[in-house]
Amino acid sequence: MSLTPQQAFKKLPAKLHNFFLRYPPRPYAQYAAGKSTIDDPQRNPFFPNKNTTNGRWYDATYSRRRSADLFKTAYKFGLQDLLPPMPRKFYQDKFDNKNWMRGVLHQKKQKWERELPAKLEARKEAIENMDAIILEKRPRYKRQLEKQQQKKKTWF
Amino acid sequence: MSWTVARHRFKRDPEKYTGVLKEYWKKKVQGTSMPTFENFTPYKLPKHERKTDFQVGITQGDLVYVTEGEKKGSIAKVYMYNPEYNHVMISDHTEQRILPKSRWTEGTTSHVIDMPKFMPLTSIKLAGKDKDENGKVSYVVADEVILKDQYYDDRYKRWLPRRFVKHHESVEIPWPAPEEVEDGELSTKESAALEKTWEFQTIGQPPVPEDALPELRNPYSQYKKRTLTALQAYKLNYPDMPLTKEQKIYLAKKQEQASAKKLTPLSDEIKEFIGSKMADHINKIESEAMLAHLEGLSKVPNPDFEKNMAELQQ
Description:
The structure holds 2 protein chains of 2 kinds.
Chain A: H1 5-10, H2 14-22, E1 36-37, E2 49-51, E3 56-58, H3 64-76, H4 91-96, H5 102-105, H6 111-128, H7 130-137, H8 141-151
Parallel strand pairs in A: 1-2
Antiparallel strand pairs in A: 2-3
Chain B: H1 3-9, H2 19-31, H3 53-56, E1 63-66, E2 75-82, E3 87-98, E4 112-120, E5 124-131, E6 137-142, E7 145-153, E8 158-165, E9 168-172, H4 190-194, H5 213-216, H6 230-236, H7 245-260, H8 268-284, H9 288-298, H10 303-313
GO molecular function (chain A): structural constituent of ribosome
Keywords (chain A): Ribonucleoprotein, Ribosomal protein
Organism (chain A): Spathaspora passalidarum (strain NRRL Y-27907 / 11-Y1)
């Protein structure tokens, strides 16, 4: 059974309806994305606003807890975009846009752990070029190499 | 720890010394003075062991039999009992001491003076004086005394125990008569001192009868009226302060804002918009549990919302 818009609107929670009475949904009203002044007609009720005449900051009309409550209720009904911009992030958005600590992203580790891949790489390269390295230090090794070449077993 | 306690705790208190330390301290104190100036320093009794003369059984004016020392076998009169040292001072029992001039009192004429000697209770025994019909005086010496019962002694104006000779409890040794104090020129008579001129009053018996109060106080006093005249009320209340120009502007602005804040119901367009968004979202939901949850959420009442809707309908 699919709902019509009129049927769906009747399911709007009283808390959200009450909020929309005071602060109409987003496309019908514009709200500042952050702090503003109390005279600003677009001031956001979720942010603190400044009184320019006396220089005082007024607390947000809706506290962090109440704003989170509104967002989460709205999210369940798919109305989260209609609310004014939020001072905090939620759910996947909160994870995606998280400001990760440097240590979490790039673990420092111990010195030997940091240097281990390069060391292994160098070792592997040295083993591969072992003959050349010995030859450079001891020219007579050339004969030994030749002997090895002669003694090399083949299937035929 | 308070300063009072700390002061006591770290203070030298020779009275608390025991055993060898006690002996050492006594010698140290006496060591500085010459033997002729030696002080009378028997051990002090600890405070909890001290007793009054009536508790011990020997008081001022008692007769005692001396059992030790030079005056052994003689009868003497007690001048005083010292509870601090548990010693008595008795008559005719003095020692000659040399007194430095710095310690002379008024009337002293010689360096050598007779000082009353303190006797420990172990070297005296209580004696009772008895006179027979012929006028012959005899003494009863009690090896030990026991104190029993109580009676009110009019001479001392207090309750005292009775003294008996131990194992001979028919023999009572009465307390001596207290030293008479002669009335001076300014002294108050006993009868005057004991006269009761004032009695303690309680709430149960108020000093003034209740019926007499209206005669003492004015029941029609203007200060007892509960209602104020217009003039009194005017004098008691401060007048309204006139507003400044800025205040008037501020109040007008505030009123304007209050009217601007008035709520308006959501328009049909907005309702349609919200409804379509919700319908899109809910129609995609397959979980029955989630749908039931949303159903429950939509039924949660909100008192503020109900109040607002009632206002809007009016």
